[in-house]
Write a structure and sequence with these properties.
- There is one protein chain.
- The protein is an alpha/beta fold.
- The protein has 30 helices and 35 strands.
- Helix 3 crosses helix 7, helix 7 packs across helix 8 and helix 7 crosses helix 10.
- The radius of gyration is 55 Å and the shape is extended.
- The two termini are about 90 Å apart.
- About 30% of the residues are buried.
- It comes from Bathycoccus prasinos.
- This is starch synthase.
- It is an enzyme of class 2 (transferase).
- One of its GO terms (molecular function) is alpha-1,4-glucan glucosyltransferase (ADP-glucose donor) activity.
- It catalyses: [(1->4)-alpha-D-glucosyl](n) + ADP-alpha-D-glucose = [(1->4)-alpha-D-glucosyl](n+1) + ADP + H(+).
């Protein structure tokens, strides 16, 4: 209880607290306190802090002043203590900044207390003024009251003032302890007030913090909603892209079908032309027969005319004899008749003139007939000569005797025609004789006219026939001329081939044809490997399959690959059938609860056909159901979509499908009120396991039609819904299996044929590689080789070694350690076998017996000391034929975050798939582990099924398996959603997601007890699997670095702990070996890091079997094939094809990034166009700045060089194939390139590469002028152009050399670089064998560590 409260309870008056009624009573306390506070803060004068206590009060005013000063001093002290208390409270809350502020304020308060004494006088004066002011204010407020009231209040104010003065006087005389107690109580009250204020302030701050937390939660909720909307948008875009890709694929398939139809039409037209040519020849024979008939008829007509003339002559003589007997009247009559006859004979003359013209036409026809016959004879003889040319290698030249015979025959025909002309002339002479006796010709006039009329009719008919025959003959002549030209061209080509064969008669002959299935080594070629005819038997002795043996081996391997894939397909189909049947049976119970699952709901939706599981269905939806108003549709409302699921939304995640308005709807659904409907449509591919289709409809404004919360449901029928006797699960699976097999029959047959082709191609590639090794061994080009190359089990083999140039060059004695079957301790193992001098100088050799169970011979060389030659730790090997038992095999597991074609971003995915296939084709067991992304291309996965589920930490992991291009793939699918984010990279947490994947893979291997011999990880993403504690020491590890730009810390640790490491080319290995992440290898493991060139898939990149090319070709026909591809490319890019063969196409297919040398690509474009070449670019730029630069470049170049440049800024698979085939020079000016695939693909298609000499580009492209020696060291021929610098003048110089060689057509044809590049082998055959050697060596190391 405070002093004030206690005094009030006791009825005592506090000092200075007496109040009177009125305005002064109400406001005195507040105004006094305000005046005291104002005085204590504003006064700056100082005075004495105390006054003499002995001096009596002079007046009431002085007493009041002293009281006021004491009160003010005590209030100031109370304030100071309150501030100290507040400072202490804040200090306990740990706010250092406020503590400093409090100390400053405390210092200021101390200063204020010191100056308080100087303010006393001013405080008293100020207090008096305040009292006066309060009185004045009270008077002003009561102005409107009556005068008596104002007077009363004024008197009361005076009385109150007197009482106040008296109370102040009494208070002054009272004990000072009273004031101290009051001040102490006020101090406590002030402290409490301050504490309450601070607590209120803290509470307010806590409320603010809570409000901020709520606001943050709201913002987080908005962010999550925005993220979900973004993911939905991304998914929608991906679906659109997928749909566009499907449409593009369909369009490409249609184009291929159209091309095949055109090809068939062309073949039909060729057959028709051949038939027309034969018909023409028959027509010519008919024409000749008709000419013979006409000739006979003319001769008969001439004979008849002679007879008539003779009769006329006789009659004229008779008339002359009777002339003397005729009277003069008769003479006049005869004269008149003769005049008439004269007119008629003039008419006859005209007819005879026409007949003469007809004879000349006949003569010309005979000449044409003669020419036609001679041409036919010449063509026939040329054919005979061409056939002879192929047999006896002679020129297709017609014999001179035959030509002279033709001349004689033509001369005889001319004589016959001359005879006919003489006959016609004699006829004309007889007609002239007839003119002298026309006066006696009256008796035979009528008959002569009749005969003349008949002759004219026959002549007209003959003229028509002659015109028709001339037309037909002219057409036949033109066709025969074209045929003659074609035969001449064919003869020229055959002559060239014959000459080429003559030149190669004594030269080496290629091994196997790249475009034929024949394997005869004496007549075919394969990737530029050449042998002599007499070497074929030697190759057989060396164990190299040739001829019929190679054909049989190829067929056997192809059959086994066919059967293996067939089994995989059957297994995948059965898995799919089981999954579908089980899903349907599971869904049947849940489907029963949908009592509204109908194919159609009146005025809401309808199906255009009966929905079938596994088929496509189109659903119509009435927009007015969602937007009932008939007002105009806005732009946003035009966007409608459906969220679709199956089996009560349980089968898979809901998908978003856009609705499209139906225009010109001619067949609206029945049983609907069409005036109330505005139909939109969307199409669905119904999954095979779907029993019910679930959907709701919405628009971009957030409106949804979900059937009042029940959603819409459509029952999906099954093709096997008919009543069957056996409906057990096994029977259902069997029916579903056959149904799926029938649907996929065509696709499966194509895959089987492709698998057979790939296996056969691999066998022939390996045979070619063996042939190359054998030939090089025969010629002494290798330091290490065996004789035979592939010995038979149970027979002897000689191991030869040339120490010069190797680690044992200066060794005095050399020994060989021999083992078998890649093991360490084979029973027939031999150590330190002495090498003796061989027949050839500098070559050491030893001969051993091969055990019957040996599938491979392993050997290495050493001296008496510490030096060894063991092929950099991998040992040397030779395969053995006919061994007993099972050949040793490896178990390899690849861990990667990419795999083509299901999840590919860059070249990593291609390498994983191609390397796995190549190693598996050599008999080893290969598994691939990848994350189960939601954005994968699931259509390329066969037999995908769930095989396991286990707990990993706080998460659950689902394990799926399937086959991709014949390789078994295990998919890791954690339920935490790491790989359900719509993308592979770019989330910002890639290191977390992929580290989780690596550990999960090893955890599953441990759970399933399926650890491989070698665990092969790719790049930094899967490197953590190497140091996983769950990996046993018996499992070796391999690391392949595809690009050192990223994850360098993880790569550094993996380099230390892995068994061996590789990168994608030898030169790139040299370029990065001093990198801090690489040079951590201990000195005793210096051979741990290798560079192995990547390869390309020759079955995919094959111009002899490429569906995207207008004409397929191989290295022998590359000129014709590339010409057609070049022309088609120009048409596709809408470029000018005028004189296109004389202008090269400079092309580039790449991602437009700084790594790829974008500034060098721009320079190549400008320089090529300036020099008169074409330029074609296919590529996309992820950087908007680079994309804009190239868009501007395209516009500039098209305006400066119209018709000679083409740009396509998006990846197009068919177009890329066409560019590789149509390009003459292919640019790859990368600033750095670990390996690079485009330059090898370009060479495969006959395009000459022009590259910057870095990484894998240096290992694959050898300059025609600068690298002959380096190419020979690689066992290759020069195949292109390269440069070293990074400046524009560097690529300009290289391109100048390339274009100069091209424009020098004779030099370009002589170099024949397109054919050279196509014959070189850039497949995975040799690299995969190198990897297998390293796998075996790593396995041995791991076993030794155990």
């Amino acid at each position: 209880m405070t002093v004030r409260e206690r005094w009030r309870r006791e009825g005592r008056e506090l000092p200075g607290t007496r109040r009177t009624s009125g305005a002064l009573t109400r406001r005195t306390k507040k105004e006094i306190l305000r005046a005291v506070m104002t005085t204590s803060s504003d006064s700056s004068s100082s005075s004495s802090s105390s006054s003499s206590s002995e001096t009596p009060p002079v007046s009431i005013k002085n007493s009041e002043e002293e009281v006021r000063e004491k009160v003010h001093a005590r209030v100031a002290r109370a304030k100071a203590k309150a501030m100290e208390l507040a400072k202490t409270t804040k200090r306990t809350r740990g706010n250092d900044d406020e503590k400093q502020d409090e100390e400053k304020e405390d210092e200021e308060e101390r200063k204020a207390v010191k100056t308080a004494s100087s303010k006393r006088v001013l405080a008293a004066e100020t207090l008096q003024k305040s009292l006066d002011l309060l009185a004045a204010k009270g008077e002003e407020e009561d102005e409107e009251e009556d005068v008596d009231a104002r007077r009363k209040r004024s008197a009361d104010a005076v009385v109150a003032d007197e009482e106040f003065s008296r109370s102040r006087s009494e208070s002054f005389s009272s004990d000072d302890s009273t004031f101290e107690r009051v001040a102490e109580s006020e101090k406590e009250e002030a402290q409490k007030v301050l504490v309450e204020a601070l607590e209120a302030k803290l509470a307010e701050r806590e409320e603010n913090v809570n409000a901020l937390e709520r606001k943050v939660e709201e913002m987080e909720m908005e962010f999550r909603n925005a993220s979900e909307a973004l993911r939905a948008t991304q998914k929608e875009l991906e679906e659109k892209e997928s749909k566009m890709q499907e449409e593009r694929d369909a369009r490409e398939e249609k184009e291929v079908e159209a091309f095949l139809a055109l090809e068939r039409t062309f073949q039909l037209e060729m057959g028709s032309l051949k038939k027309e040519l034969e018909s023409s020849e028959r027509d010519a024979e008919t024409a000749r027969a008709e000419l013979e008939d006409i000739k006979r008829k003319l001769e008969m007509d001439i004979a008849r005319e002679k007879k008539v003339s003779e009769e006329l002559r006789k009659k004229v003589e008779e008339l002359k004899g009777r002339q003397s007997e005729d009277a003069s009247g008769e003479v006049e009559k005869k004269i008149r008749e003769n005049a008439q006859l004269t007119a008629e004979i003039n008419v006859l003359k005209d007819k005879v003139a026409h007949l003469t013209a007809l004879e000349s036409e006949v003569t010309r026809l005979k000449e044409k007939e003669t020419l036609n016959a001679s041409l036919e004879n010449e063509i026939e003889k040329m054919r005979v000569e061409i056939a002879n040319n192929k047999l006896n290698d002679s020129d297709a030249v017609i014999d001179e005797n035959e030509l002279s015979a033709l001349v004689d025959e033509n001369a005889s025909l001319k004589e016959e025609i001359g005879t006919l002309k003489l006959k016609v002339e004699s006829l004309q002479e007889s007609l002239k004789t007839t003119k002298a006796t026309i006066d006696v010709f009256q008796a035979t006039t009528e008959r002569f006219d009749l005969e003349t009329s008949e002759l004219m009719d026959e002549r007209e008919t003959l003229v028509k026939k002659i015109v028709d025959l001339e037309r037909m003959l002219q057409e036949s002549i033109e066709e025969q001329k074209a045929l003659q030209q074609a035969l001449a061209d064919e003869q020229e080509e055959n002559t060239k081939l014959v000459l080429a064969q003559k030149e190669k008669a004594s030269a080496p002959v290629p091994v196997a044809s790249s475009s034929s299935s024949s394997s005869s080594l004496s007549s075919t070629t394969e990737r530029g490997i050449v042998i002599n005819h007499h070497d074929e038997n030697e190759l057989r002795r060396q164990g190299v399959p040739v001829g019929e043996e190679l054909d049989a081996l190829t067929k056997d391997v192809g059959d086994r690959a066919y059967i293996k894939l067939y089994d995989h397909q059957a297994e995948a189909l059965m898995i799919e059938a089981v999954r579908i049947v089980d899903a349907r049976n599971t869904a049947k119970d849940s489907v029963k609860k949908f009592d509204n699952a109908f194919e159609s709901v009146r005025n809401v939706y309808a199906c255009t056909s009966r929905p079938l599981a596994g088929e496509k269905v189109t659903i119509l939806y009435n927009r007015k159901q969602l937007l009932p108003n008939n007002s105009a549709v806005s732009g946003e409302e035009k966007v409608m979509f459906a969220m679709v699921g199956y089996n009560g939304w349980s089968l898979q995640h809901a998908i978003k499908v856009d609705l499209q308005p139906i225009e010109n709807f001619h067949s609206p659904p029945k049983n609907h009120d069409q005036e109330k409907c505005e139909w939109w449509e969307f199409a669905l591919d119904v999954p095979s396991e779907a029993m019910v289709i679930d959907f709701v409809v919405g628009d971009s404004k957030g409106k949804f039609d979900n059937n009042n919360g029940k959603d819409y449901h459509i029952e999906a029928a099954v093709e096997t819904d008919e009543i069957v006797e056996d409906n057990s699960r096994e029977a259902q699976i069997e029916r579903e299996y056959h149904l799926i097999a029938e649907k996929r029959r065509e696709k499966n047959h194509e895959e089987l044929a492709f698998a057979r082709k790939c296996a056969e191609s691999a066998v022939r590639a390996k045979a070619a590689l063996l042939a190359k090794k054998a030939i090089s061994s025969i010629r002494g080009e290798f330091r290490v080789f065996t004789d035979p190359l592939r010995p038979k089990a149970g027979e002897r083999v000689t191991i030869r070694y040339r120490p010069d140039g190797g680690p044992l060059t200066f060794a005095r004695a050399i020994y060989v350690d021999i083992n078998f079957n890649r093991t360490q301790n084979h029973p027939a193992k031999m150590e330190k076998v002495n090498m003796r001098a061989g027949l050839n100088g500098g070559v050491l050799e030893t001969t051993i017996d091969v055990p019957l169970d040996a599938h491979v011979v392993d050997f290495s060389f050493r001296d008496n000391g510490i030096f060894v030659d063991d092929n950099e730790g991998a040992d040397y090997h030779c395969d053995v034929i006919g061994a007993s038992g099972i050949a040793p095999k490896l178990r390899i597991a690849h861990l990667a975050v990419e795999m083509a074609p299901i999840a590919k971003v860059g070249g990593l995915g291609d390498v994983v798939t191609a390397l796995s296939r190549s190693v598996q084709e050599q008999g080893h067991h290969v598994d691939v582990y990848v994350p189960k992304y939601d954005c994968m291309n699931y259509k390329e996965i066969e037999g995908l099924r769930k095989v396991d589920q286990f707990h990993y930490g706080n998460d659950v992991i689902n394990i799926y398996q399937g086959f991709v291009e014949g390789v078994r793939v295990t998919f890791i699918d954690p339920e935490c959603g790491h790989f359900r984010v719509g993308c592979i990279y770019g989330r910002g947490d890639d290191h977390v997601r992929f580290g989780y994947f690596s550990d999960a893979c090893v955890a599953y291997m441990k759970r399933a007890n399926c650890f491989p011999d070698v665990l092969h990880v790719h790049d930094w993403q899967t490197a953590p699997a190497i140091w996983s504690p769950d990996r046993p020491k018996t499992t070796a590890t391999a690391l392949t670095i595809h690009n050192l730009q990223f994850g360098q810390d993880l790569i550094r640790r993996a380099m230390i702990e892995c068994t061996f490491a590789t990168t994608v080319s030898p030169t790139y290995a040299e370029e990065i070996k001093h990198h801090p992440s690489i040079n951590v290898i201990p000195e005793n493991e210096s051979t741990k890091f290798k560079g192995i060139r990547n390869g390309i898939d020759n079955d995919i990149w094959d111009p002899s079997n490429d569906e995207f090319l207008p004409l397929r070709y191989d290295w022998q026909t590359c000129k014709e094939g590339k010409r057609e591809a070049k022309l088609e490319l120009l048409k596709r890019m809408r470029m000018d094809a005028t004189d296109f063969e004389s202008k090269p196409i400079v092309a580039c297919v790449t991602r437009l990034t700084e790594q790829k040398g974008v500034h060098l690509i721009k320079k190549a474009c400008r320089y090529a166009l300036e020099k008169g070449a074409y330029f074609v670019l296919l590529g996309s730029a992820p950087d908007d700045r680079i994309a804009n630069d190239f868009a501007n470049l395209a516009n500039e170049m098209k305006s400066q060089h119209p018709g000679r440049c083409g740009f396509f800024f998006s990846y197009d698979e068919p177009l890329s194939h066409l560019i590789y085939a149509g390009a003459d020079i292919f640019c790859v000016p990368s600033i750095f390139e670990p390996c690079g695939l485009t330059q090898m693909i370009a060479m495969r298609y006959g395009a000459v590469p022009l590259v910057r000499r870095t990484g894998g580009l240096r290992d694959t492209v050898f300059d025609v002028q600068l690298d002959p020696a380096r190419a020979a060291s690689y066992g290759k021929s020069c195949n292109g152009y390269n440069f070293d610098g990074e400046h524009e003048q560097d690529i300009e110089y290289a391109l100048k050399r390339a274009l100069g060689d091209y424009f020098d057509r004779e030099k370009w044809n002589q170099m024949n670089l397109p054919s050279v590049g196509m014959r070189q082998d850039w497949s995975w055959t040799a690299p995969s064998e190198r990897y297998i050697d390293l796998y075996w060596n790593a396995r041995r190391k791991a076993n030794r560590q155990q």
